[in-house]
Structures are given as structure tokens and as C-alpha cells.
């Protein structure tokens, strides 16, 4: 039987680094998706994900309830993304001031990183309310396991189904607008 | 069977429905074209989503390897939870244990005792210190810090004072003409590697930028006057004797609400300040985060010399995120009496409040953000280089005392470095205000203190560090009092050197 997140967390606290690698394998996709929503760039999202896991590792000693590791990790990811946004705003201001001396470099467009249909879908997902977006991420990036996804989001089973189906409906409408504007 | 709703088809396509519900919906879809189409569309979307999310999986293994290599040595959270957290965990463990059948009976007996033990533990645990330690830990680890600095100065006036300014106005008129509260804003960028940059803002625009690199001279760029000037960022160029004197009588790192220039010094300063809090200020919400506040007494903050500080009103507030312990807001309340000066308006003290907030930790700050780009139309203003000051001696002291006496109408109350620095700063400020008033009135501008000469006042500290037992009586002695001893000290070769109130000197054979 696979170890629970809580067991792995306790293992990491005891110095078992392989346990942390396992936690990464389980949750990195979800965290990367959250970071991609914020950054809109895959490479930036990968960097942010690393930052999230590094912070989590450093702070693991203070996680009160190891069973809530996933929800705690999502919280860190949201905080890291907020900080990234603030940093970006400041850097843009700085770049404007330094425009005369340093050419601005745009991040690679999503089109260069994904195929066209994926780009459209990604944009539609990015436009969903955060709760619905997280529900999709949590479901599709964790083996389509509704039970796991709802525990990450702290929702009841019926609550999770409601959010998930709303997300799917909204996505459908957004996609049809993209294809038939 | 009625047609299921669109939501149900979405859930079925996603695969989260189970059992009979799946069977009955599939049976319905076989006979209902509309629902079959809805299910097929939902299924297509589901497949598209799966593909999209698969694309996110790229480089997963490589990224994991990178992460594992980047993990810090040692166990996570090596410092362990704070005592308060430890108690909360114990409480959590205890309550979880109560959920089992056997322990539930025992709990009825033990719970009151356990509550008592826990309550005692909570009260005995130094919660404040633990939160502080965590907050200071954040400061210690930060390599870059960005924050907003808001400074408000409020002057307090004394109605009975009627000093007259050089332009003929009474202090009452001056007070009516001038705002009694001033606020200014700055954005502070600190990097352990590249130094400090401080932007002063007015109306949202940067009017002045101060660059303080880690090594080398600093630079102030005035973007309104189109001037720039340099200043020594470190004391490498300072004469050794003066360094020794300053080391013996250090000016507090944190004074006038300003903080040291680089994160390491900021952290060091704050560590010194906030060894432990004096009081808890309770909880609040700042920037949408729940925070806990702590208060630190003024003397721990290192606020000002005892001579002119209203010590009981000086204090710092330290607001820390209740969960993460990240510092969210620092507030310094600092008040000072303004020493009596000739021609000074009736303000007798001021209260300065400096707020550091909107913190960003460890953001990537490009190195060139800390490198000044001097516009071609900027005019260089003279710099006061420490080496140009020279080591203070008796002659320099006499010059400085004379100048101070002429401008202020009295001598400095103390020659302690931090006291006298403050008095010189006030004197220079008054002189500047008088000059502006005279300029506006088309009158001759009054003199301002020559700061190069004022360094002569440090001779007292130099005598002190060389154990020459200097004594100074500036509080009691007024300029021109030829029969009053203003200062005296022992000579190396024996005897006592004396300076009188009219600044004539004498060497006495005996102490």
C-alpha cells in the first residue's frame, strides 16, 4: 500500500530525502499548474515550482498537521505566485526606467511552448475563477482521483463535484467563444 | 428517465461517477440522441484536458533532480517548532487521543488536569520570544529586502515662546504659515550583494535617489535640482584617531527612524533591538494577513542620546505574520526635544513615526538597479570627504565652538558624539530655513555652519579615548563668560589645559 502524504512528511522530518522526492512526484504537477496560471510561462512556472518545494522543505518542521501537506503546499504556491506578481510589477517599472540602456526581453510566448489547441485550452483554463481552476488542476494532475483532489482543496465530495462540473461548463463556453468568436 | 443535466454528463465524462448512476445514464444515452451528443462532447473536452495536463509533465524528472540537489543540508525545520507550537501540537495529539474509546473514559478524569497543565505550559512558554526568534530568522536569511518607508514628522509648538526669525516674523506667524505635520515616502531596496537604493517620492514621482553600494562612495541624485553628490559609504578613509573616538562613542545604528543600509546590518541592528519584546500588542490584519504585534522600548531600539530624547515616548512596533512569522510591518516612534537655538521657531519637540511595510523578501533585484546613472545635465555638488576633515585637535575644537556659539547663541549642551551630531544637524536645518526665508525676502542670506569645522567638536571624544579625562560644562557656561571653565582635560606631560567661556585657553600646572 502506498504511503500517505502524512507518512512521507514524517519521513522527511526524520531525514528521509527519498520521501521528499516522492512528495514532489505526487504534487509537483499540481503546483506547476498553479504557477503556470500565475506566470503564463512554462519555464518561469518550473522555477516557481522549485521555489515552492524549497520553501516547503525548509518549513516542513512547522507543518502542524502532516495530513494537510497538500493543502499547505498549495497555500505556499499561492503565496510564491503573489510575490512573483509583485516582483514582476516592480521589474517592469525598473525596466521602463532603464529602457534606454537595457533592451527588454519578452518571455517566450505560450505558442512556442504548446500546440495550438492546448494553448487555447490553457488560456480558457487560466480565465476560470481560481477555485474552479484549482479543482481542475487538482483532479487532472493527481491521477483523476476525486478523493485526493477534494482533500487538497478542503471540499466535501459533493462540493468538489459541483465546482468541477461548473469548471467544465464554463470551460466549454469559453472554448466555443475561442473557436467561434 | 428524464434527460440528465449537462453537469451530470460532464461528471460522467470525467469519470467521477460510480455504480448505478453510471449504468442508468449510459442506458439513457443509448436511446437519447441529444444526451449522447452531450456526453460525446464532454468526453472530447475531457480528453483535451488530459492532453493539456500531460504537457505540463515535461522535464519532471530533471526538475526533481535539480530540486533534490538544491535542498539545504540537514533536516527540514532543523530549529524545530517554537515552544508555543509544541504545546499546540501536544494539545492536538491529546485531543486526537480522546477520540479513541478507551481513552474517552480516562479523559473524563484527566481532562481537567490536562487543561491545567496545558494552561500553565502556555503561560510559562515565552511565546513572544519564539515568534520574535522566527521573525528574526526571516531577517537573517533574507538576501534582498524591498519595502516602503513612510515617515511622518509632527512638530509640537510651545505657545509662550516668541523667538524672532531673521525675516522679522515672530514664531507665532511662522507657525501659522507652516504645516506642523510633514510626511514623505520612500521605497527602499536592499541587497546583500549590491548595496542599497532608496528612492524618495513626491506625488508619486521619484525626486531623489540615494545609492549606497557595498563598497565605495555613495551617491545622492537629486532629480529635481539636477544635482548629485557623493558621500563616504564606509569609514575606510576616516583618520584612525577619529575612528577610535567614534568607536568609543558610537552613534546608534538606528537613529532618526533610519535603518542601516544593507540587509546584514539591518538584521544585526534589529537583532540587537528586539532581543525580546516588552509587550504584546495583540492581533490585527495588515495587507490582508493576520498579524501579531510586539512592542519594544525606545532604549532597546537605540533611539537617541539621553540628553534630548523623550525616552518614555520612544518605542518600536514589530508586526509579524501570525502564521509564517514573516515581518509585515515595522513602526518606529521617535520623539526628541529640539534644543533651544537662537532664532528657532517655537517648536519644542517633534515626534517622528517611520513605517516600514509592503515587504518583499528575496526578490531578484538586478545589479544595475543599484548602479547610479547620472544624467548629463546633472551638476556635481561638493562632497565632504572624511580625509578632508583631518583629525580633530584643540584648534579645530575652538573654531567649532566659536562657530556654534555664534550661530546658536550658546554652546552645545554635550560633546558626546551622538548628542552633538544631532545638535549640529538641527543647527544646519535652522540655518537652511533662515537662508530660504532671506532669499525669498531678497535679503542677505545668513551664514550656515561649516560642517568641516564642526568635526573639531570630536576632539572631546578623542581626549576621552586617550584617557585624558576631559570635562565639559556647555550646559552651564555661556559664550563670552571669561571666568567660567567651559572645558578642561589633563595634558600628557602633566598639568591641565582649560578652555573658558570666551574661548581663551590656559595651561594650569596642577589639576
Fold topology:
The complex is a heterodimer of chains A (181) and B (511).
Chain A: H1 5-13, H2 17-39, H3 42-59, H4 69-97, H5 116-126, H6 130-140, H7 146-153, H8 157-179
Helix pairs in contact in A: 1-2, 2-3, 2-4, 3-4, 5-8, 6-7, 6-8, 7-8
Chain B: H1 6-14, H2 19-31, H3 33-55, H4 60-70, H5 83-98, H6 101-124, H7 127-141, E1 144-157, H8 171-177, E2 181-191, E3 195-202, E4 205-212, E5 218-222, E6 227-231, H9 240-248, H10 263-273, E7 279-286, E8 289-297, H11 298-301, E9 315-321, E10 327-337, E11 347-361, E12 379-380, H12 386-389, H13 394-408, H14 417-440, H15 451-454, H16 459-465, E13 471-472, E14 485-490, E15 496-500, E16 505-508
Parallel strand pairs in B: 6-12
Antiparallel strand pairs in B: 1-2, 1-11, 2-3, 3-4, 4-5, 5-6, 7-8, 8-9, 9-10, 10-11, 13-14, 14-15, 15-16
Structure description:
The complex is a heterodimer of chains A (181) and B (511). Chain A has 181 residues and is an all-alpha fold. Chain A has helices at residues 5-13, 17-39, 42-59, 69-97, 116-126, 130-140, 146-153, 157-179. Chain A has two domains: 1-107, Orthogonal Bundle (Rna Polymerase Sigma Factor, Chain: A); 114-181, Orthogonal Bundle (Arc Repressor Mutant, subunit A). The longest helix of chain A is centred in the middle third of the chain and has 29 residues, at 69-97. The termini of chain A are far apart. Chain B has 16 helices and 16 strands. In chain B, helix 2 (19-31) packs across helix 3 (33-55). Chain B is elongated.
Based on the model shown, name its key terms.
heterodimer, A: 181 residues, mainly alpha, Rna Polymerase Sigma Factor, Chain: A, Arc Repressor Mutant, subunit A, 2 domains, B: alpha+beta, outer membrane lipoprotein receptor (LolB), chain A, four-stranded antiparallel β-sheet
Amino acid at each position: 500500500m502506498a504511503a500517505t502524504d502524512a507518512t512521507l512528511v514524517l519521513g522527511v522530518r526524520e531525514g528521509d530525502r527519498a520521501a521528499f522526492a516522492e512528495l514532489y512526484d505526487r504534487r509537483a504537477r499540481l503546483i506547476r499548474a498553479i504557477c503556470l496560471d500565475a506566470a503564463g510561462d512554462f519555464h518561469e512556472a518550473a522555477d516557481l515550482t522549485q521555489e515552492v518545494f524549497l520553501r516547503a522543505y525548509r518549513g516542513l518542521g512547522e507543518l502542524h498537521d502532516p495530513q494537510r501537506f497538500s493543502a499547505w503546499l498549495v497555500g505556499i504556491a499561492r503565496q510564491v505566485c503573489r510575490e512573483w506578481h509583485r516582483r514582476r510589477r516592480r521589474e517592469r517599472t525598473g525596466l521602463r526606467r532603464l529602457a534606454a540602456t537595457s533592451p527588454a526581453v519578452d518571455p517566450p510566448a505560450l505558442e512556442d511552448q504548446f500546440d495550438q489547441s492546448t494553448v487555447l485550452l490553457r488560456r480558457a483554463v487560466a480565465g476560470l475563477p481560481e477555485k474552479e481552476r484549482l479543482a481542475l488542476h487538482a483532479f487532472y494532475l493527481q491521477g483523476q482521483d476525486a478523493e485526493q483532489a477534494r482533500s487538497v482543496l478542503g471540499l466535501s465530495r459533493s462540493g468538489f463535484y459541483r465546482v468541477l462540473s461548473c469548471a467544465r461548463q464554463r470551460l466549454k463556453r469559453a472554448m466555443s467563444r475561442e473557436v467561434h468568436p | 428517465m428524464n434527460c440528465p443535466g449537462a453537469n451530470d454528463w460532464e461528471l460522467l465524462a470525467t469519470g467521477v461517477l460510480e455504480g448505478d448512476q453510471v449504468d442508468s445514464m449510459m442506458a439513457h444515452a443509448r436511446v437519447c440522441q441529444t444526451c449522447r451528443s452531450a456526453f460525446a462532447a464532454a468526453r472530447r473536452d475531457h480528453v483535451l484536458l488530459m492532453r493539456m495536463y500531460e504537457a505540463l509533465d515535461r522535464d519532471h524528472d530533471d526538475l526533481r533532480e535539480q530540486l533534490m540537489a538544491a535542498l539545504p543540508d540537514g533536516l527540514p525545520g532543523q530549529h524545530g517548532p517554537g515552544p508555543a507550537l509544541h504545546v499546540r501540537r501536544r494539545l492536538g495529539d491529546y485531543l486526537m487521543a480522546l477520540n479513541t474509546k478507551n481513552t474517552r473514559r480516562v479523559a473524563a478524569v484527566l481532562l481537567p488536569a490536562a487543561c491545567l497543565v496545558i494552561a500553565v505550559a502556555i503561560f510559562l512558554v515565552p511565546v513572544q520570544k519564539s515568534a520574535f526568534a522566527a521573525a528574526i530568522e526571516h531577517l537573517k536569511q533574507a538576501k534582498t529586502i524591498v519595502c516602503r518607508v513612510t515617515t511622518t514628522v509632527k512638530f509640537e509648538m510651545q505657545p509662550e515662546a516668541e523667538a524672532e526669525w531673521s525675516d522679522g516674523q515672530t514664531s507665532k506667524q511662522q507657525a501659522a504659515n507652516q504645516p506642523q505635520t510633514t510626511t514623505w515616502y520612500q521605497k527602499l531596496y536592499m541587497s546583500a550583494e549590491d548595496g542599497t537604493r532608496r528612492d524618495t517620492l513626491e506625488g508619486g514621482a521619484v525626486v531623489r535617489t540615494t545609492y549606497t553600494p557595498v563598497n565605495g562612495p555613495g551617491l545622492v541624485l537629486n532629480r529635481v535640482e539636477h544635482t548629485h553628490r557623493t558621500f563616504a559609504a564606509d569609514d575606510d578613509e576616516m583618520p584612525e584617531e577619529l575612528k577610535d573616538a567614534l568607536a568609543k562613542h558610537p552613534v546608534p545604528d538606528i537613529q532618526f527612524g533610519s535603518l542601516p543600509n544593507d540587509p546584514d546590518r539591518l538584521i544585526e541592528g534589529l537583532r540587537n533591538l528586539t532581543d525580546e519584546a516588552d509587550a504584546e500588542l495583540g492581533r490585527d490584519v495588515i495587507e490582508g494577513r493576520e498579524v501579531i504585534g510586539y512592542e519594544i522600548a525606545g532604549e532597546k531600539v537605540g533611539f537617541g542620546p539621553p540628553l534630548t530624547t523623550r525616552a518614555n515616548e520612544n518605542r518600536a512596533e514589530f508586526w509579524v505574520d501570525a502564521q509564517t512569522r514573516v515581518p509585515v510591518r515595522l513602526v518606529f516612534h521617535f520623539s526628541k526635544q529640539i534644543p533651544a537655538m537662537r532664532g528657532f521657531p517655537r517648536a519644542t519637540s517633534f515626534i517622528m513615526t517611520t513605517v516600514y511595510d509592503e515587504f518583499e523578501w528575496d526578490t531578484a533585484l538586478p545589479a544595475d538597479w543599484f548602479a547610479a546613472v547620472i544624467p548629463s545635465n546633472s551638476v556635481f555638488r561638493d562632497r565632504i570627504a572624511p580625509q578632508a576633515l583631518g583629525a580633530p585637535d584643540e584648534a579645530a575644537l575652538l573654531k567649532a565652538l566659536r562657530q556654534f556659539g555664534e550661530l546658536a547663541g550658546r554652546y552645545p549642551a554635550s560633546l558626546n558624539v551622538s548628542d552633538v551630531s544631532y545638535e549640529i544637524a538641527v543647527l544646519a536645518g535652522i540655518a537652511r530655513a533662515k537662508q530660504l526665508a532671506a532669499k525669498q525676502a531678497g535679503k542677505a542670506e545668513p551664514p550656515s555652519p561649516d560642517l568641516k569645522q564642526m568635526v573639531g567638536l570630536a576632539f572631546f571624544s578623542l581626549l576621552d579615548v586617550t584617557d585624558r579625562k576631559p570635562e565639559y560644562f556647555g550646559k552651564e557656561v555661556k559664550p563670552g563668560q571669561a571666568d567660567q571653565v567651559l572645558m578642561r582635560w589633563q595634558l600628557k606631560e602633566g598639568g591641565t589645559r582649560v578652555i573658558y567661556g570666551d574661548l581663551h585657553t590656559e595651561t594650569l600646572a596642577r589639576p
